[in-house]
TrEMBL record:
Record keywords: Carboxypeptidase, Hydrolase, Protease
InterPro entries membership: Metallo_peptidase_C, Peptidase_M99
Organism phylogeny: Bacteria, Pseudomonadati, Campylobacterota, Epsilonproteobacteria, Campylobacterales
One protein family per Pfam: Peptidase_M99_C
Transmembrane segments: none
Metallo-carboxypeptidase C-terminal domain ranges (all copies): 332-428
Top-rank taxon: Bacteria
Domain D,L-carboxypeptidase peptidase: 29-259
Protein name: M99 family carboxypeptidase catalytic domain-containing protein
Protein's organism: Campylobacter porcelli
Gene Ontology molecular function terms on file: carboxypeptidase activity
Amino acid sequence: MRNLTIFLTIFIFSSYAYGEFSLIKLGVDDNNTVLVTGGIQGDEPGGFMSANLLARKYEIISGSLYVVPNLNMPSILKKSRGVNGDMNRKFDKISDKDPEKDVVEQIKSLVLQPNISMLVNLHDGSGFYRPKYINQMMNPNRWGNIVIIDQSTLDGALYGDLEQNANKVVDRLNSKILDPKHKYHLRNTRTSDGDKEMLKSLSYFAIKNGKSAYANEASKSLPINERVYYHLIAVEEYLKLAGIEFKRDFELTPQGVKKALDEDLSVLVCGKFLFYLPKSRLGYIPLSSDGKLDFDCDNALVALTKTQGIYNIHYGNNIITRFTPEFFEYSNLIDEIGIRIDDDEPKFVKLGQKIVVDSSFMIMPKDGVRANIIGYGTTISDESGIKITKDMIKSRFSMDKKEQIYRVEFYEMCDGKDKFIGMILVEFAK
């Protein structure tokens, strides 16, 4: 039985603020937990999108997996290697004044937990590594498509045959390469021999503390879905080495990965809000008048920022939509509403859901609740009890680019001053 616990922090930034990371736990905790991290450098989307897909699309059948997809969310939002310097160079020494000190100490504490037996850090590197110089993009100074270890073995550690295990991962990757130039190689940085940069890294911090650590690099020359494809092949091999059984709900091919990534963005559940493949610009969205933002999203790569009164919804490196706020008091009067779909018998639908209709829907009246079908009416009145077809709603108010999805908002009627309860989305299938 899968046991899933998610700790999510949504990041609200108006500047280069520091935020915490998300930790997703899959499986049942035991003393053989693999920790996978992505996003320590914010300009490496292959790494953090792979970790996020791992957290959202995999099921652990036996064993334990921890995933941190957004280790450096402020840098992810800014498409920056590090808005406060390279975080992956702060695990040896860090100033008390460094704005990232807290998050660095938190990830250190996580790595040091007794149940963590292996760390896998996901990165994107430039070009394609080759042991000998071939050309500008394929030479020893490139970091793309390599498996990295700090040393050959780690005595006394679980999975301490680092080189042997890493070579198994390399062989697996090369059995699945899409093009000969994508060939993977092992790169042993021999960190303790004096690699001054790698001495400061997260992976070497793990090694110093007796934890096996590996890094996987995918080339920045590849499209995102191919980077994720290679990262996930590597992660799956590490899970197999650790005896962790898993399954996923998509095919591990470049095409299957692309579809899974698209699906991952298709529905965003964020507290009282629901977004489905949103347009680049949406109309007024009801926010809390008390300044508290009920926007706790179920996706660790989604964040909200504010710029000159306009709110931006981010997904990783990209802004997927912008909207103007409208402020209301919030209410929890109801958490479901009766809806008649295509003349069938009414059924109760939880707020924060998307329903699909062929031709029509009707919101069933509820005492004290006002339904507002965005794009239908022009007056502030309860729009429940009305059979609604698509042609009755102005298409410019749709939530999606295909103009098939519309939102219905619900308000508690309080002496002429409405309080926002929540929303549902209605998709017209035809």
